[in-house]
Design a protein that fits this description.
With 436 residues, the chain is an alpha+beta fold. Helices cover 31% and strands 30% of the residues. It has a seven-stranded mixed sheet. β22 and β23 (419-423) form a beta hairpin. α2 (32-51) crosses α9 (304-315). The radius of gyration is 26 Å and the shape is globular. Bound molecules: glycyl-adenosine-5'-phosphate (GAP).
Length: 436
């Protein structure tokens, strides 16, 4: 993990937030490559769960909502972790993360830990000029509640009838006691949530299973190693009392298994809770039968930062291999899926000081840029390949002296390191086929 964290910083994927002031725990910034990587993951989720479906509509709610939203959802009363303090070193820990209940994991002292206490995870702020209890508001700890409180607005305006879904991607905030493991547990993060509403016609469990299968297929389509991913079905004791079924999607990180998504059959719990506290009707009115009902909810809730981290960790490999000349080399390579890779293709001029080559390479790069996220570079070919392997660029295209005569370029594939000569005019089709 240390190697991945160092690479992430060196190559501009992820930086600790406010680093020049010593950083701030649980907050991270995405560098030039990281911002594209994260956007590609977001787009891949959005394409699959919204654009490619005709039964899911997009949505975007505000981050700060009426405080009663969080009362109804249960977050004000029960969204807490048990924490303990060390009286000696003053560090704070989650009680369920302690290896030993009477030894401080930071300073190692025994008998210095306090009794566990509840700690609410919501981040508070104040609205308006007064800082009193009446002005308290919360930064949302999940995006889902914005969907629930707008259920009626959305189905009426979009003219939708269950079964249908509402999806949203956006920031969530949790005042985690012990943020850590890089971007795995943050205090500010993005969620990708899809809430699917189903009628009471006996199809709810089938729909739940279809979503579990759809999410499995999505991870597999982006090449996540099957042996590192598991779909853990929670037992009745493990899931919330209102949930009829729940599957956690887990990845085996270098420090162990961790959840990156949860898929749940939540019954009518969320809409019921908002109807009760607001006194407003959030039922679906079925014109055909002239009857109303609260639809059943199937939720798929994934973390965008965690999924991005999985893409990075899963792609990372340090390998010993031989280069095109048969020479033994060791390289670090990120084996991103072509659609996830921040740079799709790099175009090189074999020499810096040959204007003909530079001009030709720049023209090719310019032509492909908008469609394939290309990058131009020049210089020592071995170093260029090494740099592109480290940022996970699937294809490197080199313009050399022969290109000026025959119009062909060398294309080198990242994983196999195989090289082939291709007519520059055919590059667009070549890449399009591989990025589909
Ligand atoms: N609406 C349901 C919900 O929010 P959750 O299991 O609490 O469920 C869903 O969160 C996903 O959000 C998690 O699987 C994880 O990927 C992401 N997530 C939750 N807390 C996070 C944190 N502190 N840092 C980064 N991602 C987090």
């Amino acid at each position: 993990m240390e190697e991945i964290t160092a690479l992430a910083k060196r190559r501009g994927f992820i930086f600790p937030s406010s680093e020049i002031y010593g950083g701030i725990g649980g907050f991270y910034d995405y560098g030039p490559l990281g911002a594209i990587l994260k956007r590609n993951v977001r787009d891949a989720w959005w394409r699959e769960n919204v654009l490619n479906r005709d039964d899911v509509v997009p949505f975007e709610s505000s981050i700060i909502m009426h405080p009663l939203v969080w009362k109804a959802s249960g977050h004000v009363d029960v969204f807490s972790d048990r924490m303990v303090d060390c009286r000696h070193c003053k560090h704070r820990f989650r009680a369920d993360h302690l290896k030993s209940p009477d030894q401080c994991p930071n300073c190692g002292m025994k008998g210095t830990l306090t009794e566990p206490r509840d700690f609410n995870l919501m981040l508070k702020t104040n609205i308006g000029p007064m800082e009193d209890s009446a002005s308290v508001a919360y930064l949302r700890p999940e995006t889902a509640q914005g969907i629930f409180v707008n259920f009626k607005n959305i189905y009426q305006s979009a003219r939708r009838k269950p079964p249908f879904g509402i999806a949203q991607i956006g920031k969530s905030f949790r005042n985690e006691i012990t943020p850590g493991n890089f971007t795995y547990r943050m205090r500010e993060f993005d969620q990708m949530e899809m809430e699917y509403f189903v009628p009471h016609d006996g199809t709810d469990m089938d729909t739940y299973r279809q979503w579990v299968d759809a999410r499995k297929a999505w991870y597999s389509a982006y090449g996540i190693r099957a042996d590192k991913l598991r779909f853990y079905e929670l037992s009745e004791d493990e899931r919330p009392h209102y949930a009829k079924a729940c599957t956690d999607v887990e990845y085996e990180f270098p420090w162990g298994w961790g959840e990156l998504e949860s898929i749940a059959h939540r019954g009518t719990y969320d809409l019921d809770a908002h109807m009760k506290l607001s006194g407003k009707d959030l039922t679906y009115f079925d014109e055909a039968s002239k009857s109303k009902y609260v639809p059943i909810l199937i939720e798929s809730s994934a973390g965008l930062d965690r999924t991005t981290l999985v893409m990075l960790v899963d792609a990372f490999e340090r390998e010993k291999t031989v280069d095109a000349n048969g020479k033994e080399i060791e390289r670090v390579v990120l084996r991103f899926h072509p659609r996830i890779a921040p740079v799709g293709a790099a175009v090189f001029s074999l020499a810096r000081n040959k204007p003909d080559l530079v001009e030709r390479a720049r023209a090719i790069e310019g032509d492909l840029h908008a469609d394939f996220r290309t990058q131009y570079d020049e210089g020592n070919i071995g170093q260029l390949y090494r740099r592109q392997d480290e940022i996970g660029t699937p294809y490197c295209i080199t313009v050399d002296y022969e290109t000026l005569d025959d119009g062909a370029v060398t294309v080198r594939e990242r994983d196999s390191m195989r090289q082939e000569r291709i007519a520059a005019a055919a590059l667009r089709d070549y890449l399009a086929e591989r990025f589909r």
